Amino acid sequence: MSRKMLPCEEEPEMWHVDAVDSEDTALAKHRCLTECPVKARTACFILGDGEKHGVWGGTDVRERGRVKYRRELALLKAGTAA
Fold first, then answer.
1. Distance from the first to the final alpha carbon of the chain
2. Which member of 11, 27, 37, 44 has the lowest number of beta carbons within 10 Å of its beta carbon?
3. Is 6 exposed, middle or buried (0-12, 13-18, 19+ CB in 10 A)?
């Protein structure tokens, strides 16, 4: 039995747009957040952490940078090295 393709598998070029504020980026993020299973979104975000291009886990490079910054700041406040 075959599984349903994920949106990023159907149209992979949509997820590799460099322009953060483009319509394609907005559509890719929307599709990721509304059509992709939660586990896949989480795995995609983790895989895309540090990735400088495209949409991963419903986030663009700026959003992933903010998450990484917050995570590292929390570790520093807790006295733990990243």
1. 42
2. 37
3. middle
Number of alpha carbons in the 13 Å side-chain half-sphere of residue 78:
9
Per-residue pLDDT of the chain (82 residues), as tens digits, is 677 888 888 888 888 887 778 888 999 999 988 998 877 888 888 878 788 888 988 888 898 889 888 988 998 998 865 5
How far apart CA 23 and CA 74 sit, in angstroms, is 33
What are the boundaries of each domain within the chain? Answer: 7-77
Torsion 8-11-14-16 (CA) sign = positive
Distances (CA, A) of 75 to 7, 44, 46, 69: 34, 23, 18, 10
Cβ neighbors of 80 (< 8 A, separation 6 or more) are none
Q: Whole-prediction pTM value?
A: 0.75
